Amino acid sequence: MPSYNAPVDDTLFLLNDVLDYTQYSGLPGFSDASPDLLEAILREAAKFAEDIAQPLNLSGDQQGCFRAEDGSVTPPKGFNEAYQAFCDAGWGTLSADPAYGGQGLPHTLAVIFNEYLSSANMAFAMYPGLTAGAVAALTLHGTEELKQTYLPKMIAGSWTGTMNLTEPHCGTDLGLIRTKAAPQDDGSYKLSGTKIFISAGEHDLTENIIHFVLARIEGAPAGTKGISLFVVPKHSLDADGNPGALNGVSCGALEHKMGIHGNATCLMNYDEATGWLIGEENKGLRAMFTMMNEARLGVAVQGLGQSEVAYQNAAAYAKDRLQGRAMSGPKSPDKAADPIIVHPDVRRILLQIRSFNEAARALVLWTALKGDVSHRSDDVKTRQKADDMMGLMTPVLKGVLTDTGFANTVDAQQILGGHGYIAEWGMEQFVRDARIAMIYEGANGIQALDLVGRKLPANGGRAVMSFFAEVGAFLKEIEGQEQLSGFAKPLTQGLEHLQQATMWFMNNAMAKPDNAGAGSTDYMHLFGLVGMGYMWAKIAKTVVSKLDAGAGDKEDWLKAKLVYGTFYMERIMPETGAHLARISTGADTMMALDGDAF
Amino acid sequence: MPSYNAPVDDTLFLLNDVLDYTQYSGLPGFSDASPDLLEAILREAAKFAEDIAQPLNLSGDQQGCFRAEDGSVTPPKGFNEAYQAFCDAGWGTLSADPAYGGQGLPHTLAVIFNEYLSSANMAFAMYPGLTAGAVAALTLHGTEELKQTYLPKMIAGSWTGTMNLTEPHCGTDLGLIRTKAAPQDDGSYKLSGTKIFISAGEHDLTENIIHFVLARIEGAPAGTKGISLFVVPKHSLDADGNPGALNGVSCGALEHKMGIHGNATCLMNYDEATGWLIGEENKGLRAMFTMMNEARLGVAVQGLGQSEVAYQNAAAYAKDRLQGRAMSGPKSPDKAADPIIVHPDVRRILLQIRSFNEAARALVLWTALKGDVSHRSDDVKTRQKADDMMGLMTPVLKGVLTDTGFANTVDAQQILGGHGYIAEWGMEQFVRDARIAMIYEGANGIQALDLVGRKLPANGGRAVMSFFAEVGAFLKEIEGQEQLSGFAKPLTQGLEHLQQATMWFMNNAMAKPDNAGAGSTDYMHLFGLVGMGYMWAKIAKTVVSKLDAGAGDKEDWLKAKLVYGTFYMERIMPETGAHLARISTGADTMMALDGDAF
Questions:
Q1: In this protein, which residues make up the domain named Acetyl-CoA dehydrogenase-like C-terminal (chains A, B) (predicted)?
Q2: Chain B residues in contact with A424 (beta carbon < 8 A)
């Protein structure tokens, strides 16, 4: 049976020591989250993830969800009780607006909780996870009446939220949406159409489900300019705001998926369902994007979460499984064989994953803090700069953490050999669950295009220049520090490759957009490598200064981090050169053939 | 519903034009396989794969195998009829020894059939696939009596074979085997023990199943020096050699696996089952390795096979799915959107897979032909050189074609977005099925160690030197050919990286074996990149000379190959530098930590 221990000490080290979290204590919400309270919350979060959510992960995968003939859906055994515990503890309220029952704490805390919960049980985490995105969209774009009606219940978790974008013929290209909304005299709309791949679309965890639906108002312009966003409750609300009669929306089928079996992925039929407009007519995509940006960081964290739990179980197996002897001579001569962790190739895999996990977590926190600053600072310039960084890093994190996170679950599975392929060890579930994160909330190819096509050129490249300046300044700061040269050199090299690639796009992609598309995925990964390399250098700097100051019983723990980081610099960073080489070849070869040559 | 078209034209082009298959016509069996007959056989093979095996792939995955309480196992619907058709057409007899009912054709033909069948239905292909390995072991190591008893039935397909190595506590390290064999007065043995992960361990496709079992004879030395190989029929044979009473072997459970659901993966209980020794006492591993080397090439081909079928379905989807517009302006202005194949990032994925598939197929055929030469040439030196190359390339193919083949199924799945994640499109099955090929028949880490630890240093590096000489001579041959410079340059660079890495091992791994283990997987992939790069350069040379001679209606088809190859050189070969950089960092960082730091 797989197990999970939330990496609370690692998280606290990153927040307190590496990212100097207390520097933000002047911001609203941060003052309430003192280091002591922070630690207390994370330890509680760990308990919820480890003791409540994780034990339901394997059984939830094996049972899946059940749809009865009347369209009602039952999640796996235990999910109802776990969801109730989630609500009772108020986990959904952490960073939500106090005006609607939230605690107003830094959103960074919600991101951390989300990592732990995703590691423990990704299918379960998606029920409240989608609600959080819906809450964000409604908070920013809804009328006060809609907010009063829905937010308190959704924040408390009494009602969950969904996102309804995809239709059978339309995924990435939302301009093709056909679901119709007919205006009614009372200001509401009647929605009709079919949506697919709707996560948590139907279930009995809550007394109501609030669907956020993209549809086209009758007579709206064609394409993306005619899409509006609606809120459509499963049960219409009575005069007191309580769930009443069923609205015209129902689950037509459950999808048969590769993984996340514990989450109900539904085909939803809208048959004159009553909905209410969120934001302006025909401006639905803008409102939906709020929800998606929120969701994208959440999905990035799922990639990290699956990578972390897969690592933990692979490492435990490698320390336990006796098989063969070390090439340098027996390490456990009293036993029939050595544990397989004596083998360099096993350590290579483990270090590859671990050196990713720690840097990815750092980059998530770095980005989440920028997000908090961008929403909470009272200084316009500070907000703008933080927003730039958050916007730049969101597609990088979504694409890289889910691509590499998935690859890591595959590598971790490999450590167990044949046992990794069968269900009872849980490793193959991590692979199947992690796979979806590369696809939903904008497939990773779309993230790469968002990075290269939108985020990079926005405001004359202001965001990327600001990132380069920050890393450059840090490199200047550690220049000449002998103990950090193993970090400074590869990071300098990686940054140069990233700058060269950026320059290449500036020179070659304006006139010929295909050159941007041809290098976009490589650029996203190059960016991720440098971003995580930057995090490792920051971690190393912190570790070295703490060791110099005397670290007591933390010494081995800190020194190990230098080894993980050194591995990253030696073995992962060399990839930046290959990415640059690929980007520089441009689109000519790729576009040379007619479609029928494929 | 997924589909499959066997790449017969590609195979014929490689055999006839690139690898000059007719040069071997003097070898036994080759004279019977004229180009006309070869094509006729491949077209029939394609029909069997496309029309009989492929239609059962998705349904076989969804139904899986069923074990009744009495231990009997039923494969998915249609497998019995398909297996009967396989036997009726004599597909198992292709390259088998004519003395026992085989056709004696080149084994290369069986390898090609195996690719097509693996693409069409990997779970089905494993039933006859394991029989072929068992036949090889028995042919080389069995007594004439055992051969007469078992080979004709197994070659005809009336009986299938299995390989029983793994036990719950022992996989890679076969020295830990506990299954016991007690000698009996009649020369037989009674076997008792438990074996796990036994593919095709029990089923009702045939009237008998012949288990090849590793066990320890009572009183045998500890470790690998005390392992013997036995043949244990499911039904004991009566005086006429027909299946009689059940022997003491039964299926205790079916494993719940990530994929290959159509194949019965069994836990097998041996309870005083009667078996017969194959080869010498305590020399069982040697006999089993014959079987495994055969099997490893077969598994490599599974990796290629899944990559090919995943490619075909992703390419078809990309040409069909309308979504968004080309960045360079609408390509299908009369439709609601362009097919997604207009996007460079979609083409990047497709070309990545296709440029691998064609080169991997070439390298498989190149190696398979060496295998045929090593068994059939009457010149000792020729045999030895071919055997060197076959031995060197087998772990490379097994490791690289299954690692990259799997990664390709994941990339292909990505093209379909959410549709790739649900069962009905079949893409997620390719991922789940392909995953096992990285694990069984020696996990890929073991292949890398076999390459670096055994194949590289064997006979003073004779095999690798011979490979370098062959590639070097080819580069000399195309030197100065302007049209081929885009191939010659990256291949030269890649070969240099490979040679530097080889030299690094010679200088650093003798004294410190961990340095070999630390770089083994990177070296295996570096080797594969150069091997496939060599194949692309050979293909390009052939294409250019055919185009120069006038290629008629084949012109576009041939020119497209130059584009796939150019993509490989531009985008895939840059990886060689990163591998070399990683190898050169050695084992120090990897081995720096105690086990509990993981």
A1: 467-594
A2: 256
- Is the Cα torsion angle A583, A585, A586, A587 positive or negative in sign? negative
| Minimum-distance CB partner of B517 among A344, A436, A443 | A344
- Considering only CA atoms, which of B557, B59, B475, B542 is closest in space to residue B261? B59
β-bridge mates for residue A246, sequence order = A235
- Per DSSP, B453 falls in state I
The residues near B232 (Cβ < 8 Å, ≥ 6 apart) are B164, B191, B210, B211, B212, B213, B247, B249, B270, B273, B274, B275, B276
Please tell me which of the candidates B173, B556, B585 has its beta carbon nearest to residue A337: B173
Q: How far is CA A51 from the centre of its chain?
A: 22
Tokens of A75: 């999640």
Residues 6 or more apart in contact with residue A588 via CB below 8 angstroms? none
Provide the terminal-to-terminal Cα distance of chain B, rounded to the nearest Å. 44
Amino acid at B540: A
Residue A286 is predicted with a pLDDT of 86
- The CB-based long-range contact list for A63-68 (8 Å cut-off, 24+ gap) reads A63/A261, A63/A262, A64/A261, A64/A262, A65/A203, A65/A254, A65/A261, A65/A262, A65/A263, A65/A264, A67/A202, A67/A251, A67/A253, A67/A254, A67/A264
Which is nearest to B188 in space by CA: B115, B137, B116, B237? B237
Contact between B391 and B455 (Cβ < 8 Å): yes
The model's pLDDT over B172-198, given as tens digits with 9 standing for 90+, comes to 899 999 999 999 999 999 999 999 999
Asked if residues A472 and A486 have their Cβ atoms less than 8 Å apart, the reply is no
Output the six-digit token pair for B478. 């195309």
Distance CA B211, CA B214 (A): 10
Chain A residues near residue B406 by CB distance under 8 angstroms: 410
Of all residues in chain B, the one with the smallest CA distance to A167 is B418
Average pLDDT over residues A390-394: 95
pLDDT per position as a tens digit, A551-593: 999 999 999 999 999 999 999 999 999 999 999 999 999 999 9
- What is the rounded distance in angstroms from the CA atom of residue B411 to the CA atom of residue B397? 20
Helix (H) or strand (E) holding A155: helix A144-156
To the query of whether residue A482 is one of the catalytic residues in this protein, the response is: no
State the smallest CA–CA distance between residue B359 and chain A in angstroms: 16
For residues A38 and A44, is the Cβ–Cβ distance under 8 A?
no
Q: In which residue are the tokens 């079992």 written? A: B213
Reading phi first (left if > 0) and then psi (alpha if -120 to 50, else beta), residue A538 is in alpha
DSSP string, A37-60: HHHHHHHHHHHIIIIIIGGGHHHH
CB count in 10 Å sphere of residue B245: 10
Joined together, the tokens standing for residue B464 give: 């690798």
3-state SS class at B339 = strand
- Six-digit token pair at A278? 């969120």
List the catalytic residue out of A115, A167, A202, A441.
Answer: A441
Res B294: pLDDT: 72
> Does the distance separating the beta carbons of A438 and B414 come in below 8 Å?
yes
In the DSSP assignment, the letter for residue B110 is H
For residues A285 and A175, give the distance between their C-alpha atoms in angstroms, rounded to a whole number: 9
- pLDDT value at position B287? 83
pLDDT confidence of residue A90 = 97
The pLDDT assigned to A342 comes to 96
In angstroms, the CA A111 to CA A367 distance is 10
Q: At what angle do helices B462-478 and B513-548 cross, to 10 degrees?
A: 30
Burial class (CB within 10 angstroms; exposed 0-12, middle 13-18, buried 19+) of A306: buried
**Model confidence pLDDT, tens digit, residues A27-45:** 999 988 899 999 999 999 9
Structure tokens at A511: 């006139």
Distance CA A567, CA B597 (A): 14
A contacts of B422 (beta carbons < 8 Å): 255-258
